[in-house]
Amino acid sequence: PDDLQIREIRRSSGGLGAAWVQCPLAPAQKQLAAGGLVVGWARASIRVLEDRPIQCFKCLRYVHMAVTCQTDNGLAGRCFRCGRAGHVAKGFTEVVRCPLCQYEGKKADHRMGGPACKTVPRAASKRGAPTSKSKRR
């Protein structure tokens, strides 16, 4: 179906695989209630992702988009795992460094947007700030 998207399976160092799957909410809730999804002889666990705040890919800050961005901090096109230009995060093996925290002079030894990142508005979606699931007019 057109409303089902499955990304490639990524293997962990322990040999287990994980895949990102996007589907409508109703089938996802049905599989979640059933305790997972049967794949061959195994049962795959399901985790529903929470809404994330909108992020600008020009300045890497949150709660606005590039089309309305008025900042030019030179972070556009940077890898979100190390902050350097010229490559993407897929297959990344270098030291992780948050480009936005580094730019702001904060501790940056973490992945941008991860649990240790101080630039992410954690409760924004609960207070009504725009998220990736918000309706846009």
Give the overall pLDDT as a whole number. 79
Measured by DSSP, the beta-strand proportion falls in 5-15%
Largest sheet entry? 2 strands, antiparallel
Radius of gyration: 18 Å
Strand order of the largest sheet: 1-4
Count of individual helical segments: 3
**How helical, in percent, are the residues?**
10-25%
The secondary structure category is: little secondary structure
Report how far apart the termini are.
Answer: 27 Å
- Unreliable residue stretches: 124-130
What is the N-to-C order of secondary-structure elements (H for helix, E for strand)? EEEEHEEHH
Shape summary: globular
Count of distinct strands: 6
What does this structure look like?
The chain is low in regular secondary structure and 137 residues long. The protein has 3 helices and 6 strands; from the N terminus they run ββββαββαα. It has a domain of 41 residues. Strands 1-4 form a two-stranded antiparallel sheet. A two-stranded antiparallel sheet has the order 2-3. A two-stranded antiparallel sheet has the order 5-6. Strand 5 and strand 6 form a beta hairpin. It starts with a strand and ends in a 10-residue tail after the last helix. It comes from Harpegnathos saltator. One of its GO terms (molecular function) is nucleic acid binding.
SSE blueprint and pairings:
Elements: E1 5-6, E2 10-11, E3 17-18, E4 21-22, H1 25-33, E5 37-39, E6 42-44, H2 99-103, H3 124-127
Antiparallel strand pairs: 1-4, 2-3, 5-6
Protein name: CCHC-type domain-containing protein
Region (Disordered): 111-137
GO molecular function: nucleic acid binding; zinc ion binding
